[in-house]
Amino acid sequence: MNWISLLGLDALQARWRASLNELALAAEDRADLAQLEWQMHKRSLQTLVVLVVALGGLTVVVLTVLSIALMVQFWDSDHRTTVAWCLAGSWLLVWVLALWRLLAAVKQLSEPFKLTRNEFKVDWKTLKEKL
């Protein structure tokens, strides 16, 4: 004797099975999304490390060149000072560009797994609406 059929719980059982199947598929999708975002996050961290090292090296160069430019400023020839300041300005421009890129990378890293969190929010909202 099938008590589920007699009590009319077939529809409820079918809905629960469908919900569980949907939940399993959603969990797989979210796991894949989290894995993809982790790979993106890792690449961003690698970029950040490279940029920090580059910025550190450029900072040393900028400070050295600016110091030399200040020393050359007091020499007799006008051409030497112009060249020294142009070189210092060039290194300063490169340093500012590297700093700008570093800050952009840090900003990007400040929101890891954004897509996964958004999907979980949508899933939670949908689940609450069904209940």
TrEMBL record:
The record ties this protein, via InterPro entries, to: Phage_holin_3_6 (IPR009937)
| Spans traversing the lipid bilayer | 48-70, 82-104
Keywords attached to this Swiss-Prot or TrEMBL record, sorted alphabetically, are: Membrane, Transmembrane, Transmembrane helix
- What top-level branch of life does the organism fall under? Bacteria
The name of this protein is Phage holin family protein
